[in-house]
């Protein structure tokens, strides 16, 4: 018995991700099928407080910086560092940022800074971004950060 009035569909996860099962899901018209993945989205978003997003982003940045600082400190205090400790810390921070904001966010649907405030990144139709979209957003963020540094530097 289907109590929530959505069509029974064993591939609902595929529909939520924007895919298609080939069957019409019973929505009003074809554009509804394309925009909402076959049925009206059950995700009701609350008004977003941008201060919470900014604080979550800053916490994420602090995490990435802390990883880089830990690698720098470890290499700087080792008897024979394998490479330049400062560059090792910079590359470790960048790698931590990439892994955290792409792979971790794809797996747990949010970053560690945003999870403290109950925030998740979703598209307008309620689906979560794909790994390719997260990687693209990360590179756009790096380019924007470099642009800010060169503007003020």
Residue share in β-strands: under 5%
Total DSSP E strands: 0
Judging from the principal axes of the Cα atoms, what is the shape?
Answer: elongated
Instruction: Provide the structure class.
Output: mainly alpha
What is the tally of helical segments? 6
Largest β sheet strand count, sense and barrel closure:
none
Helix content: 55-70%
What's the end-to-end separation, in Å?
64 Å
Flag low-confidence runs: 9-41
Rg, Cα atoms, Å: 21 Å
The oligomeric state is single chain
Give the ordered list of helices and strands: HHHHHH
* pLDDT averaged residue by residue: 77
Write the layout of secondary structure elements.
Layout: H1 12-16, H2 30-36, H3 50-76, H4 85-108, H5 112-115, H6 131-152
Helix pairs in contact: 3-4, 4-6
Give a description of the structure.
By secondary structure, the protein is mainly alpha-helical. It has six helices and no strands. About 15% of the residues are buried.
